[in-house]
Amino acid sequence: MTVNADRNLYEHGTVLVNDGEIIDVRPSKPEDGELDAETVIDGSGKLVLPDLVNPHTRRTVPDDGRCQRT
Question: Which backbone phi and psi does 51 adopt, to 5 degrees?
Fold first, then answer.
């Protein structure tokens, strides 16, 4: 599953990663088995989803008397 503008779904897909960064997500090709890769993960029968990150944080204000309570 991709999150690009077309929201492509690939039944047989390949995810290429270089130095921890995803560089390509595309349909698998026969020559993918010949790629020179440090690590290969066989995801046959699996679903790959984009990571969900929640960057929301709550900042707290110290109660030192400088803030007016409402």
Answer: -70, 140
Q: Tell me how far apart the alpha carbons of residues 2 and 13 are, in angstroms, rounded to a whole number.
A: 10
User: What does the pLDDT look like over 48-64, one tens digit per residue?
Assistant: 877 766 667 676 666 66
Task: Give SS3 for 50.
Answer: coil
Domain boundaries, given as residue ranges, for the chain: 1-35
**Secondary structure of 39-57 as H, E, C letters:** CCCCCCCCCCCCCCCCCCC
Q: Which residues contact 10 (CB under 8 A, 6 or more apart)?
A: 2, 25, 26, 27, 28
- The reported pTM is 0.59
